[in-house]
Design brief:
The protein has one domain (about 5-240): Rossmann fold. Helices cover about 35% and strands about 15% of the residues. The protein is built from eight helices and eight strands; from the N terminus they run E-H-E-H-E-H-E-H-E-E-H-E-E-H-H-H. The chain has helices at about 10-20, 30-35, 70-80, 95-105, 135-145, 195-200, 210-220, 225-240; strands at about 5, 25, 45, 85-90, 105-115, 125-130, 180-185, 185-190. Strands 3-4-6-5 form a four-stranded mixed beta sheet, sandwiched between helices. A two-stranded parallel sheet has the order 1-2. Strand 7 and strand 8 form a beta hairpin. Helix 2 packs parallel to helix 3 (about 70-80), helix 5 (about 135-145) crosses helix 8 (about 225-240) and helix 6 (about 195-200) runs parallel beside helix 7 (about 210-220). It starts with 5 loop residues before the first strand and ends with a helix.
Length: about 240
């Protein structure tokens, strides 16, 4: 597959994208792309709209992050790709998102993954996949076959293997709900940027050139690469 466009608001994430994909355009905001998406020709639209407004971790507290699920769907309506992949936390409004995909003519598959089956980070996420008509069964069959015997985290392989909690998107906090290490003679420390990259499935140094806090936040906001790679392979197999 060839990447044809990105949509990213964060300035620092845009720098990393530009370094690795210098010739691929990056749109500044999904709301802009929702109005101008007809200029993009893509077979797959994938992404994760901000989750804080629906995250259980907020405990019902208000969020300053907008709910952009509707704009995500507007992009799909403009671009009309063959496949749609949306990653987010498990939340009841996934039914509404799936219903709109159905109205747009897609068959919809809902699959849940814990990244601990692929890396040493526990990150439970729901993926809604919009499939071309008639492709759903083949996609799910390939996906489940590929994911039935993988992993070295808490839900596969050695049950005693250490697994990190879901990486935080906060740049520099040291709190009970975040990951930190204890080293004899050094005490508590935050995970390094390279450790966070590995837990996300990125090559070490992928986010190099930025401050530690920025790099940690990027990894906390990123999808786990082996998980989405698994989904991508199942999509390609269904097309074969």
């Amino acid at each position: 597959m060839t990447t044809v466009a990105f949509c990213e608001q964060d300035e620092f994430c845009r720098r990393v994208l530009a370094r690795h994909w210098p010739d691929v355009p990056c749109y500044p905001d999904v709301r802009y792309l929702a109005e101008n998406g007809s200029a993009v020709d893509a077979d797959v639209v994938c992404g994760g709209d901000p989750c804080p407004s629906r995250s259980k971790a907020r405990g019902g507290r208000p969020s300053s992050h907008p709910d952009l699920a509707g704009y995500f769907l507007a992009v799909v309506g403009r671009v009309r790709p063959r496949w749609v992949v949306r990653e987010n936390v498990f939340a009841p409004d996934a039914l509404d998102f799936a219903a709109v995909l159905d109205m747009l003519g897609y068959e919809v598959a809902s699959v849940g993954f814990d990244s601990a089956d692929f890396t040493a980070q526990s990150r439970r996420r729901q993926f809604l996949v919009g499939c071309p008509a008639g492709y759903r069964a083949d996609f799910l069959g390939t996906l489940l076959d590929a994911s039935s015997d993988v992993g070295f985290g808490s839900t596969g392989g050695d049950a005693k293997a250490p697994v990190a909690s879901c990486l935080t998107a906060h740049p520099s906090r040291l709190a009970a709900e975040d990951n930190y290490c204890f080293e004899p003679g050094r005490g508590l420390r935050l995970l390094s940027a390279e450790e966070c990259e590995s837990l996300t499935g990125l090559p070490r140094g992928w986010t190099a050139g930025l401050a530690l806090g920025r790099r940690r936040a990027m990894c906390g906001n990123a999808v786990t690469v082996p998980v989405v790679s698994n989904i991508g392979r199942a999509m390609m197999a269904a097309e074969a």
